[in-house]
Amino acid sequence: MDDVIACDDCHVFQNKKEEFRESQWDNPRPVCNSCSTKRAWAMFATDIAACPNARVIHNRQHVTSRNPSTGPPESGHPLQTPSLKNAKPEAWEHVAAERIKRQLDDATPRGTNLDAIAASDVPAIQRNKWCVGCSKGVPSAQRCSQCKRVLFCSTACQKSAWAKHKPRCHAIPVETSVAATWNPVLAATRSSNPDESYRAFTQVQAWMAEDPTAAAATFRGLDGVSLFLHHLETVDLESTWQSLLLLTRFIESSAGIAADVIHLGGVATLLALTTDSIDFRIQASAVVAVGTLIASSTDDAIALTAHLIDDLDAVSAFLTVLLYASTLEDDVELVACVQSTALLLQLLEHHPDALSQLASFRAADTGDDIGSLLTRLVGKIDTIYRLNRSTGVQVGHHLYLNVLGLVGAVVHAHPECKPQFVKAKLVAVVCNIIQQHCQILPLAPITVFEAVVACVVWFVCTFIYDWRVHLTATESMEVLDRLVPLLTPFLSDPEACEDFTNCHRGIALASSVFRCVLASNVALAPRMRLSALDLFVCAILPPFDVPDTDRHCRIHANVDVVLTTLNTALKVALTAQDSVLSPEDDVGLSGMLLAEAVKCSGLVAHFGQAMPPVQGTNIPKALVQVLGHEHVHSETKWTAMAALIQWDMNGNSVASGLGDVTAVESVVSTLSTAAQANQLDLIQLMRDLLERHKSPVL
């Protein structure tokens, strides 16, 4: 720690080379540059006050041009350039400064912002200091000479931000007795003796445990933030790790300390530890510290996010930590993964460029891309939930939901990455997880071998040893809620859809998922029903151009599954309508589910012409019930009428579902009174259908 010394005036630990003149390095009572300037001004002001003949020359806002005149002066003599030869010995510095200033003015066009040019020439990764005036990363900055807790990139920036900074620009008072107790301990944390530094860190931790608020105030008042940030730049791994742990606790307990860490450039220091450290404990702790810092900085969250992405390449850093921790060998790696994924989700939420950086990630040493990395984590569900059970808290569950959230963001918002997930076999991984962990209705075995294997597995798990990890009902539904929407985008690709259908029994799987969600009482189930129905529809009617004959064959090959599922969906959705008070109240998820199920029934009738009846199903009857239900929205009734006509026109039996034709005619007549011009043809087709099937009771 020889590169850090404490100023004798402000008692702030600062970088020796950056904040002190060389003459002060070996001084037993060193004074930093800021305090030296304040001392010099105090002495000058004292001399002015003591000398009665002293006069201060004021600039009365007489603006002079910075650029010399290009024409001759009024006297007619040529413009003279100051010369060092003609200057008095005591004025040579002034003359040299004037010459340099004039040369710079001649070379720089009027109105050019030199600070902006300098900042633009600096690579983003070097803009690692935080200017509190600009609220962004800058390549260089100086501390405020009074409070020593913020940095400014220029004097002009400090002046413009003074009104905002002034209320906070003051020293934090610390009692003399408390400072006398704390200062030796803080100084001991810099000791090269491991035992001495360890005792010092332990003492600070004990003070934190006794009274976190008082300890945080004292730590901040003695500028422990600067000291600990310098600790993080040393090569002593143990001191770095201890400093990280304590600094994270201080950030959690004090919003002021969190602000000081940001303002003093601590974000860049923490990001450097996530990528450059040779000890994974430090990498994991640094990620935790950054996450805590972002959570605590509510005022500058957006600006801080921009600093992380634009200046510090945080997306790549967090993904690198996630890659190294993806082995999930212990709870340290589990926590590192949780924090990394949570930070990535926050960056995706607050910055538009985060997604493109996430999608373009590729590890230099392993060659992993974002598809292979996230797919591998999705497949580690057993490992994650075993660690989740061992820790006793929901850390593993949160990690798995975060990973699924990242996959969903990339797949839905950046479709160019879908080939990466196809190559990593994400569809197969998701299908296996749904069957094994999400408590859906088991798929019936197709072959004798599958039946024998299922019986053996059941016997071993029931009577000998169950090696599987069982999710609770809530965990299962929350996982299923995120897994189902991941499959749907891949069904728009013909090869992926064919693989899903043939290799993973996709239609039966989608049906089982949908019926499981329909039967569930978990709070998430109403929202999931729409996504599960969407998956089922895409499975039976692929969302890409295929001949109608292929759709017809696809429906007939699975007609029992298709009709049974649709019949169940219509019944459940109709039952939910009984609790709706009026058609105007039908704006919820249950009404949307009914409308989508009715549309799907019409599509199946259109493409699956002349479908054989399936025992226990009567979709035309359900559609007639939709027409006559008083709480169903009128638009849904018109859709049900069109679906019923499709069933009749395409060779499917509707006679058994019409029931009392007279009652149906009454409903149709009521709808016709409010029919639009484009709905009159539909009314006529429905009346023709009823006329053909007219009888007292059918």
Explain this structure.
The chain has 698 residues and is mostly helical. Among the domains are: 56 residues, no CATH class; 77 residues, no CATH class; 147 residues. The protein is 63% helix and 2% strand. The chain contains 36 helices and 6 strands. A hairpin with a 7-residue loop joins strand 5 and strand 6. Helix 8 runs parallel beside helix 11 and helix 21 runs parallel beside helix 25. It is elongated and about 110 Å long. About 8% of the residues have low confidence.
Secondary structure elements and pairings:
Layout: E1 4-6, E2 13-15, H1 16-19, H2 33-50, H3 92-107, H4 114-121, E3 129-131, E4 136-138, E5 142-143, E6 151-152, H5 155-160, H6 162-165, H7 176-188, H8 194-210, H9 212-221, H10 224-231, H11 237-253, H12 255-263, H13 266-276, H14 280-296, H15 301-311, H16 314-325, H17 331-350, H18 354-359, H19 370-379, H20 381-391, H21 395-413, H22 418-423, H23 426-437, H24 448-463, H25 473-487, H26 494-503, H27 506-519, H28 525-540, H29 548-557, H30 559-577, H31 589-607, H32 619-628, H33 634-649, H34 655-658, H35 661-672, H36 680-692
Antiparallel strand pairs: 1-2, 3-4, 5-6
